[in-house]
Amino acid sequence: MTTVQSPPTPPTAIKRPRVVARTGLYAVLAANAAVVAWFFVQAGFASNALIVLGRLTGLYAALIMAFQLVLVARLPWLDRRIGMDRLTSWHRWTGFGILWTLLAHVVFISFGYAQGTDVGPIGEIVDLAETTEGVLRAVVAFFLILVVGAVSARYARRRLAYETWHFIHLYTYVAVVLAFTHQVAVGTTFASSSAATAYWYGIWSVALGSVVLGRAVLPLWRNWRHQFRVTAVVPESDNVVSIYISGKDLDQLPARAGQFFLWRFLTADRWWQANPFSLSAAPDGRTLRLTAKAAGEGSAALRHLKVGTRVFAEGPYGAFTALHRTRPESVLIAGGVGVTPIRALLEEVHGHAVVIYRVGSDRDAVLYDELRDLAIAKGADLHLVTGPPVPDKLAASELARLVPDIAERDVFLCGPPPMMNAVLGSLRELDVPGPQIHFERFSLAG
C-alpha cells in the first residue's frame, strides 16, 4: 500500500441538483396524470364499467409511453442531474408499466364490448380490428410491446447480445407511432374537446421531439461544430491506451470531469461501433482524453488508431460529477481502469479528498504516476491498495481505517461491478448516507 499525504484545501459549495430534477419529473408526471383524469371525466362515461376502465387504462398507458420516451431522449439537463444509468433503469420499469396498463386496456375493452354478445372477448377484438379504424394498428402495437417486454425481462436480456436486444427494442418506436394513430382514430377522450385534442398532440410532440432533439439533432450539431479528431495515441500499459482528441471551440463543449461519451472512430472497420468511455482528464477547453482497457476486439483496436482519424462523439453523458457534492470533503474510490473518471474528478473537486485506488498489483495501477502528482498538487491523500480479491481490502473495517470520517464525506465510486457492489455494502455498514454516495454504472440499456 502506498500513501501520499498533503495538507487539506478549503471546502466547496454544496448543491442538490438530483433531488430537484427527480422532484420535478415526479411533479410533471403527477400533474399530467391529473390532467388526463380531468379530460377523461369531461368526456363522459361509457355504458359499462369495463369499458370505462379500459379507456382509462389506455389513456394512462399512452401517458406513460410518452414519459418513457423523455427518459431515454438523453436530454442534457436531465442526464447531468440524474444520470443515464438511473434514467435507463426508470425507462425499464416504466416499460413494464406500459405493458401491464396496455394488457389491462385490452382485457377490459374486449370483455366490456363482449358483454351482451355471443362472440366472446377474442372474437370481439377480431371484430373490432376488422371493422373499426385504428384498432388493427393498436393490436399490432400491443404485440410489438409484448415482444419488447419479453426480451427485456432479466432472464432473456442476459442471454441476448446487446446489438440483438437493441435492434428488437427499436420496434418500440413503431409501436409508439401505431398507438398514437390508434388514439387519434378512436380515442373518445382525445376527440372530446379541442382542449383535449391539443393536449394530447402537445404531449406526443414533446415526447417525440425530445427523442429527435437528444438522440439526433444535438449530437449532429455538436459534431459539426467541434470537428473531433484524434491527435495522439499513447499506450499506458500492455493493454491500456489513452486517446487524445482535439477539435474546434472545445471550450464551448459542456463536458465535466467524470462524464463519458459514446465514441465512434470513423475508420473503415469501426465507424458503425459506438463505445462508452469516460474522460480520463478534466476537459481543459483544448483537448479531450479517454483511457481504455482492451476488453474486446473494439477496445483492443484503439491502440492502432492513426492520428487525424475523424471521431463522432455523442455526449457528454452522466451525473458522476462534482455537481452532486453534498459535503465539503470527499473520498474517491477507484478499481482497475475505473480510475479514469476518478482521476478526472480529482482535478475538479475542491476541499480535502482521499483517493483509494484498488488494483491486483502495482503494475495494474494505470495512470498512477499522474494520480500521485495530482494528489500532491491538490493536497489529497492517496492510498494504493494492492493484492488478491480475498480478503476484501475495501471491507468496512479497512475503509474505516483508511478514512475514519468517511460518513462525513461524499464518496465517489467507480470500478468493476463486483467491486462496486462490495464497496456499496461496506458503505452501508459504515452508515454513509445514501445522498453522499455517488456512482454510475455507465450502462446504456437493460
UniProtKB/TrEMBL annotation:
Classification via Pfam families: Ferric_reduct, NAD_binding_1
Recorded GO MF terms: 2 iron, 2 sulfur cluster binding; flavin adenine dinucleotide binding; metal ion binding; oxidoreductase activity
Essential cofactor(s): FAD
Gene Ontology cellular-component terms listed: membrane
Membrane-crossing segments per the record: 25-45, 51-72, 93-114, 134-156, 168-186, 198-218
Domain of life: Bacteria
Localisation per UniProt entry: Membrane
UniProt cross-references to PROSITE patterns, sorted A to Z: FAD_FR
Topology term for the membrane: Multi-pass membrane protein
Keywords: 2Fe-2S, FAD, Flavoprotein, Iron, Iron-sulfur, Membrane, Metal-binding, Oxidoreductase, Transmembrane, Transmembrane helix
InterPro entries: FAD-bd_FR_type, Fe3_Rdtase_TM_dom, FNR_nucleotide-bd, MRET, OxRdtase_FAD/NAD-bd, Riboflavin_synthase-like_b-brl
Domain FAD-binding FR-type, first and last residues per copy: 223-323
Protein name: Oxidoreductase
Organism (species): Streptomyces sviceus (strain ATCC 29083 / DSM 924 / JCM 4929 / NBRC 13980 / NCIMB 11184 / NRRL 5439 / UC 5370)
